[in-house]
Write a structure and sequence with these properties.
The model has no long low-confidence stretch (mean pLDDT about 90). The chain is built from 12 helices and no strands. Helix 9 packs antiparallel against helix 10. It is globular and about 65 Å long. The chain is mainly α.
């Protein structure tokens, strides 16, 4: 594509490529074998790779990852068109209509001076859309929170929906008290495991409750729990690899080192991998 190409020509080219890949007469055997269910995991994976490129501020990588994610949309739209459901143009038109509908302060006469006003209006419009879609079926304020979301992210979204209608703790201190309560219940069930293996199921439930309330605590102080855990994972990975490197320098292997030795290296790794000023 060049600067002289008309707008949309790159999209048209991509749609043509996908149609060729899915053509029963000479298309790609792998692409032809796929369906919505088999492609869905790739779609999720590509979305996470976009998020990783953003976190790393890798903008060259971001361009590639956005292309991979766009391919997923094109792939699903092509399969839907083959089945007679809808095509890519209808997907693009549907999201265009939605963006106009959900931004009446831009495309209509409503007023919104602050991001908070925009968010409140957005949620109100989404709620109205859900009610219209449900028709005469019973509805819930929790409808539409996708089951396929990572559990921690879904917990935060469920709690945000509940908070929007007043079902919420008054402040972070109140949530902290609940964290302490849930942690004590986890301790009780773990202690019971020594004499009662049936306590394992109860321990699982209590750990779930603890994670759920921790997600709420994060939301209460405007921290994304998914992002927080992702950063914790990255920090653990950096420190663990630092231990491996330090041991290798001394001709040692982690699996041959006792826990006390590893703890010494862990504390050293914490110092060398800690951000400035922390």
């Amino acid at each position: 594509m060049t600067d002289q190409d008309p707008p949309g020509s790159a999209i048209a080219q991509l749609l043509t490529i996908m149609a060729r890949l899915r053509d029963p007469d000479g298309g790609c055997p792998w692409d032809l074998q796929q369906d919505f269910a088999s492609i869905a995991p790739y779609t999720i994976e590509e979305a996470y790779e976009v998020a990783q490129a953003i976190a790393e501020e890798d903008f060259a990588g971001l361009k590639d990852e956005l292309g991979d994610l766009l391919l997923q949309v094109v792939f699903h739209a092509r399969m839907a068109e083959e089945a007679g459901h809808f095509g890519f143009d209808e997907v693009a038109q549907a999201i265009s209509d939605k963006m106009v509908r959900r931004h009446p302060h831009v495309f209509g006469t409503d007023q919104a001076e602050e991001p908070g006003q925009v968010s409140a209006g957005w949620e109100a419009i989404k709620a109205a859309e859900r009610a219209e879609k449900a028709g005469n079926r019973p509805t819930s304020h929790l409808d539409g929170v996708a089951l396929a979301l990572p559990a921690l992210l879904r917990a935060a979204k469920l709690q945000k929906r509940a908070a929007a209608v007043g079902f919420d703790w008054p402040n972070a201190s109140a949530v902290l008290s609940k964290v302490d309560e849930e942690l004590e219940e986890v301790k009780v069930e773990i202690a019971a495991l020594e004499d009662d293996q049936s306590a394992l199921e109860r321990a699982e439930e209590e750990i779930g409750d603890l994670l759920f309330v921790l997600a709420n605590l994060a939301r209460k102080i405007a921290v994304d729990p998914e992002v927080a855990l992702r950063k914790a994972n990255a920090k653990f990975e950096r420190r663990f690899k630092a231990i491996e490197a330090a041991l290798e320098e001394r001709g040692l292997a982690m699996e041959d080192s006792d826990l006390e030795t590893l703890e010494v290296y862990w504390q050293a790794a914490k110092q060398t991998t800690r951000p400035p000023g922390r």
